[in-house]
Amino acid sequence: MDSGITTIKLRKSTVELLNRLKIHHRQSYEEIVLKLILKYKDSRKKFDFYKIDLGKEQVTTIKLHKDTVKLLNKLKVHPRQPYEEVILKIVQNEKIRKRAR
Fold it and tell me: Mutual orientation of helices 66-75 and 83-100 as an angle, nearest 10°?
């Protein structure tokens, strides 16, 4: 696989959610997103994802390896689904898993 680096656009509120999942402030978004993807795939639960209102929130970007973006692409319901929705879906799934424990 190609191991180049790319960027994806996310709302600042989504990046803040990712920040809260960090164990250490220097932990990369790459590591957080990969862990979430693995946990999401392992959970194998049906997930009803609510449509989010993107509104006019500020947008920022994070850097991810292209391999990680390929994994995110596999989780998309539709090719044009934003990465924002995919990441929020796996973050929400993680919150549900933690509450179920």
Answer: 70
Closest alpha carbon to 63 in 10, 13, 1, 2? 10
- Cα 50–52–57 angle (5° rounding)? 165
CA-based end-to-end distance of the chain: 36
Share of the chain above pLDDT 70, in %: 82
As a whole number of angstroms, the distance between CA 14 and CA 94 comes to 14
The 10 Å CB-count burial string (b at 16+, else e) for 17-30 is bbeebeeeeeeebe
Report the C-alpha dihedral over residues 6, 78, 13, 100, rounded to 10 degrees. -110
pTM of the model: 0.63
Tokens of 2: 């190609």
